[in-house]
Description:
With 149 residues, the chain is α/β, with parallel strands linked by helices.
Amino acid sequence: MALKGGGLERKSKASDQIPSSSLADIAFLLLIFFMVTTVFRTEADRPIEWPEAEATQQIDETRDNIMYVWIERNGDIWINDRLVGLDQVSDLVAPRWVESGRRLRISLRADAEVPYRYVDAVQTQIQQAGAIYVVFATDLERRMMRERR
């Protein structure tokens, strides 16, 4: 007498659903991975000779509301690590001023040997953009920032 079907039947069948018990673990591990491997961008220092000052004031504002404007000795203007022309300064500052809710602070970092006409021209462009908070960065401020880090 022969057994029908060989006598062995499969007790469990393959499921057509994706197992969700380990999805939370995988998502958590991916989150940790991206947090650990993310590199936060910092502004690059420009090679300038910082002007001296006897006193300075610390900027009490979040990093998002600070715009760094560098003026090099040859008159090159850098805004947040991007080389721009003098005629572009107002066009870049004005939208940021509005986006920040009029809290934008401009940190003007000019070389100690830069001719004043460049500083004045940049300051005029910033005023035309509507921004009114301009801080002239000095060597003392730079040293204070390094001590805080």
